[in-house]
Amino acid sequence: MDKIEIQLQKIELLLSKIDVTNEKVSKASVGWHLEHLLLILNSSLKGLTMTNPKDYNPKFSLKKFVFLNFGMIPRGKIRAPKQFIPLEVPTRESILKLINRAKERLKAVENLPEKSFITHPFLGDFDRKTTFRFLWLHSNHHLKIVDDILK
Fold it and tell me: Per-residue DSSP letters for 80-98?
């Protein structure tokens, strides 16, 4: 969870650069990547509070194993579900609102049972600890893209 809080601090430092683009790296702007990762983060944290730990049903998957252990997400190969695509051009205000919501939700999930979970559409159930790992890896993926856009 501390790693995610550090990422949120980095996102705040990037607010002045949300309009920067680099077509050689990504069709999307810095702001798009930040808002996208925050939409995933907020939705997943909320999801942890809405599941019954008794229903947690992890299943092995090679893709899940590779992702969680090696953090590999191929660039440009996976399309985000529609609900996680920013609808409008991200603004400083929209991103700041999502950052603040994420901070609140991180506090709200701190003491949830370990078997609280989310169900990823491709990778299956993630318990609380694995959800944090997923969120950090996903956010890190997009923050690396942002770094490359800004080079």
Answer: PPGGGS-SS---HHHHHHH
Answer for the pair 118, 52: CB distance below 8 angstroms, yes or no: no
End-to-end CA distance of the chain: 28
pLDDT surpasses 80 at 52: yes
| CA atoms lying within 13 Å on the CB side of residue 109 | 30
CB distance 117 to 125 below 8 Å: yes
- The answer to whether residue 57 scores a pLDDT higher than 90 is yes
Per the CB < 8 A criterion, the answer to whether 139 and 4 are in contact is: yes
- pLDDT > 90 fraction of the chain, expressed in percent and rounded: 85
Q: Give the 3-state secondary structure of residue 57.
A: coil
Report whether 30 contacts 19 (CB < 8 A).
yes
pTM for the complete prediction? 0.93
User: CA dist 82 to 41, 50, 88, 110, Å?
Assistant: 15, 21, 13, 28
Give the mean pLDDT of 107-124. 95
Rounded (to 5) percent helix, strand, coil in the chain: 60, 5, 35
Are 150 and 89 spatial neighbours (Cβ–Cβ below 8 Å)? no
Written as six digits, the tokens of 143 are: 């923050």
